[in-house]
Design brief:
alpha+beta, five-stranded mixed β-sheet, four-stranded antiparallel β-sheet, 13% strand, flat
Amino acid sequence: RRWRHTLPTRGAASLSAPGSVHEAEYTRPAQAVEPSCIMARRLSSRDIRTATNAPSVFGINPGLIVARPARESCCLCYALVPHGFYALVAKNGAEIDEPGSNSPVWSSGFHFVDCFSKVTHLVTRQFIVFDTPVQGCKTSDDVNVIINSSVVFRVMGDDRKGEDPKLVPKFVHDVTAAGLQQQLQDALSQEMRTLARSMKHTEVYACRSGLAAAQAQPVVAAMDRGSEEGEAVLKGEKMPLPPLVGAAKAIGGGDEDSDSEIGEAREPDEFDFVGFKGIDVTIEMKNKLNEQFKPQGVEIVDVIIQDITLPQEISVQMTNRSMVKSLQAFEKMTQQHQIQAIKLKNELDMETLNNQEDAEKFKAEKGKSNQVYKDQYDEQKEIRAREYNSYKKTTQVEQQKIAADMKEVTLRLRLEREQALQQLALEAEEQAVKITAEAAAKIQEMEAETELQVAQMNGEAQKALAAAELASNKHLAKKREFELTDKQLDIYNKLSMNPDLVVTASEDEKTNLMMMADSVLKSEQGKEGDGAMLANLNMLRLASNAYGLSSSVYIPSNDAAGAESAGAGGEAW
């Protein structure tokens, strides 16, 4: 039988975020195991350096329940509570509740506190397996046995499970780890001794697995009741049980006259009585221990009876007795098997003989019936052959008749088809001629209408063009004026870029000629050319006019002088 419990894991993994779950599987051992590796022989409390070292310290010592961490520094204004522990915090020696929860148990994580507060106690939330063997247990027949038992428990106070958090400080200050160890040892010793006293030494092994164990009953209570049941418990007598019926009786069909001992009813022996007796004693013990320890803040999760040790002489006797009984049972089962094998062989031979007789009888009957069926089949076959031949001839006659009718109908339909085709061809030719004439007339009419529409549209287009030209005359005149002005501006631009250009503000022709001659003389200074000569002649002419010379003296005109100078020097006047 196996139990599975949720166990907080030990070690550094316990310092995870609040609310995370660490689970490990706890399997109740069916046999004795080495207790030093998983069980605690002693429950204790101790001082540790800091609260952050608690997971490693608790992981090394499986029996440690309460740790008292020292303060790291008086200047620190915070407290660290590792995950997997109940934490009690005190200020100036007095325990205080966690802010906002009114609970003496502080949750895991980081908390801001003043420099006068610190974590005083850390109580583990994990399940603890406490091993406490009980020696000197006397059975009802005064045989000393040693019962190696263990108890799985945890400290209560988890508000997520609906428990009172005030149970934690009660356990720390009132119960203590040493007090819990003493109480558990005393309670388990009492229960184990009571259990052993209610059984004989031949029955104590039944309570080891917890499946078919006897119910523990206090001896004093049984004596006080004074009932037959209590006296039977004290005397170790067997309670009346229903007789056992062997399986061979059911196999043999319940034959009451059978000589086999398998089918007979028998009274249960001592080993059968041990197998039927009682209920799981560990559940009963757990309930009783919880009634005692839950008010103190401790929950008993499971009670394990690992092993029971009898004295060496009694163990050897029980082993020999079991071997003798096993040998007797083997011999008895061998005899029963042989008897059953002989019986089954006889039944098989009888069934085989009956089957052979039935097979021969069935074969003869079937041969006779098969001949009758064969004659009936031959007769039916002749009748069906005659009917088939008659049907075949009738079918051939009907086929010939249908073929002749089909030829006649086919010829008639062919003639009707040709006549219909000729008539359709004539109607088609007539309709084609008519459609051609109508199409030609329609085409001429559409062409005349098209020409009329074209002439009308051309007239409207001419009108639109004339109106457009009339409307655009003003715009065209402005355009031409703009182009003329643009060309004049181009000329002025080119003149402004000519270095030989002379600009005057006078309208007197002679003054302008004098200015031009002066410009030419400046540009031709030091050079011998026609331009310089003509400029000098114009200056002389102007001077002669000023002094009253006759105009009959030939002096080249402005146009001629400018032309010659332009041709000779490429200059502009």
